[in-house]
Amino acid sequence: MIELVDIHRDFQVGGQTVHALNGVSLTIESGEYVSIMGPSGSGKSTLLNLLGLLDRPSTGTYRLNGQDVTALSDVRQAQVRNREIGFVFQMFHLVPRLTAAANVELPLILAGIPPQERLPRVTRALADLHLSDRSHHKPEQLSGGQRQRVAIARATVTEPRVLLADEPTGNLDHSSGQDVIRILEELNARGITLIMVTHDPEMGQRARRRLRMLDGCMTDEPDGTA
Amino acid sequence: MALHSADVARFSWGALRGFPSRTVLMLIAMAIGVSAVVVLTSLGEGARRYVIGEFASLGTNLIIVFPGRSETAGINPTTMMGETPRDLTLDDALALTRSRRVRRMAPINVGSVDASWRGRSRESVILGSSHDLLAIRHWELGQGRFLPLADIDRAMPVAVIGSKIRDELFGATPALGEWLRLGDRRFRVIGILGSEGRSIGVDVQETIIIPVASAQQMFNTASLFRILVEAKTREAIEPVKQFVIDTLQERHQGERDVTVITQDAVLETFDRILGALTYAVGGIAAISLAVAGILIMNVMLVAVSQRTAEIGLLKALGASPRQIIVLMLTEAMLLSALGAGLGLLLGQAGSLLVRQVFPVLPAYAPAWALVMALAVALLAGLLFSLMPARRAARLDPVLALSKR
């Protein structure tokens, strides 16, 4: 489903070229549960952004569902992002002035889905994450765990096939973190492809397939495919 | 992926309310720009009307008729030599009122007699005229009333005197109602001209005005010195001039033996002044709107950097660059429209204040200025937010989202 071939991503940082990704090749099948671990600056966030079409590789090919998405226009990439990919961020990135329901509704609005179709989908997405009684709360009125659950509802309301999570528990206390991980794993169990970047070895170990990044290169952990 | 316009409006409105300080700043910028246009144009317009008013006080739309033909065009001076022009009569004057383009008419007769009261006497200018003279000359009456409205061929023993005459003949004694001797006749003083009385060529303060028929009797003549005709509008001046010439020619057995002059030359200069004034006001207005536009651009740029994370998020959620531009522009347009509306109110309040402080200045913003201010505000809002909107659309979502 996801196929990366010899991906390079170089940044210019003050006259020096930094190789954030240095020839990464990777295939991920539909429904997989993958964790990406590695030290800071190893390129794991860059890889996640690339997978989410938020960034383009300097060289290399990225095929999503057999389609070369690196060559797509901005508009087409935006469409693919809207339909196929859900993002969960460490900082939640909820729009502070919008209610939980309105935040979840955003991707549907951007997809141009008519209002009468949006409401039941938003309601269902919030109910799935046990947030029905929080739908009219602003983010500032929600706990960290609740915020991340709203973010997950927003990421899944378009029913994407891939969920990209960047340190989803990084800003949460232990029990909220456990909660969020359990929810993500449930989604994976129902068929969504889950790719999670994390610092936390405990979280990383839970994934069926564990990838380790170092200096822009990738290694499958020996016991990763257990 | 077309956005629903209701969604766009709702989202933009939410964004405006979500950043109240920025919204208020921008509204102020816009409102100041628009209200500046309104106040400036109302000042310009007020000045224009004031100038018109001042000109009007000299006697507007005036056509002056006097006997004899002094035009050189097409006339051989030798033919003038032996010609005795026919006099202008009161009947001629009355005939000149028979046009709907004529507002007022005043015949004028001038002479000089000894005016005396209780032993004091003084040589003074006598003006024989009629009720309408006051309005035609825009003179002000200090006390009492002017010549009564009556048939102009009725000789009445009443007089209106200039303030200097009053001072010199009557001193501190109230002059109203006193009998004044002019030559061998007695006239009752019914009014005193204000000392502010303006004049062209005649010193009003040293003048005594009596009914034209009385003056004719006093000087034993049937002729008039001048006839003043006031046209209803500026546009009517030329037709009235032609009407006067034609009427008098007809009444004088086909002879064109009168001279008719108008204020054309004065009005032409006046027109140039007004034109320059209008351009100046337009220029000032344009500058203030440009300033408002640049303020809008700055605030929108601030808006983009303030909302970097949100724009990055929208991109991550699948917003296309075009959608980002639409959202940002809608926001700017909403702001511009609100700000412009506010500015119109402010501007109207401002010109009201100007009118309160300077009652002589009729400072009303002309309609074209209101329409222009609104239109240019919206246009400026659109143009000057294009650049920030496009910058937002090009924003790198990775960088935008990584700002913590």
What average pLDDT do the residues of chain B reach? Answer: 82
Rounded to the nearest angstrom, the distance between the terminal CA atoms of chain A is 20 Å
Shape of chain A: globular
Q: What low-confidence regions of chain A span 5 or more consecutive residues with pLDDT below 50?
A: none
Number of helices of chain B: 13
Strand residue percentage of chain B: 15-25%
Mean model confidence by pLDDT of chain A? 90
Largest beta sheet: strand ordering of chain A: 6-7-8-3-9-10
What does this structure look like?
The complex is a heterodimer of chains A (226) and B (404). Chain A is of the alpha/beta class. Chain A has helices at residues 44-51, 74-84, 100-110, 115-128, 144-156, 174-189, 201-205, and strands spanning 2-13, 16-28, 33-37, 59-64, 67-68, 85-88, 162-166, 193-197, 209-214, 217-220. In chain A, the strands form two sheets. Chain A has a six-stranded mixed beta sheet with strand order 6-7-8-3-9-10, sandwiched between helices. In chain A, a hairpin with a 2-residue loop joins strand 4 (59-64) and strand 5 (67-68). Helices cover 55% and strands 17% of the residues of chain B. Chain B has a six-stranded mixed beta barrel. In chain B, a hairpin with a 2-residue loop joins strand 2 and strand 3. In chain B, helix 11 (321-357) runs antiparallel to helix 12. The longest helix of chain B is centred in the C-terminal third of the chain and has 43 residues, at 264-306.
Brief description of this entry?
The complex is a heterodimer of chains A (226) and B (404). With 226 residues, chain A is of the alpha/beta class. Chain A contains seven helices and ten strands.
Chain-wise SSE layout:
The complex is a heterodimer of chains A (226) and B (404).
Chain A: E1 2-13, E2 16-28, E3 33-37, H1 44-51, E4 59-64, E5 67-68, H2 74-84, E6 85-88, H3 100-110, H4 115-128, H5 144-156, E7 162-166, H6 174-189, E8 193-197, H7 201-205, E9 209-214, E10 217-220
Parallel strand pairs in A: 3-8, 3-9, 6-7, 7-8
Antiparallel strand pairs in A: 1-2, 1-4, 4-5, 9-10
Chain B: H1 5-18, H2 20-57, E1 62-67, H3 77-81, H4 90-95, E2 102-117, E3 120-129, H5 133-137, E4 141-144, E5 158-161, H6 163-170, E6 179-182, E7 185-193, E8 207-211, H7 212-219, E9 226-231, H8 237-251, E10 258-262, H9 264-306, H10 308-316, H11 321-357, H12 367-394, H13 397-402
Parallel strand pairs in B: 3-8, 5-7
Antiparallel strand pairs in B: 1-9, 1-10, 2-3, 2-6, 2-9, 4-7, 5-8, 6-7
Helix pairs in contact in B: 1-11, 2-9, 2-11, 2-12, 9-12, 11-12
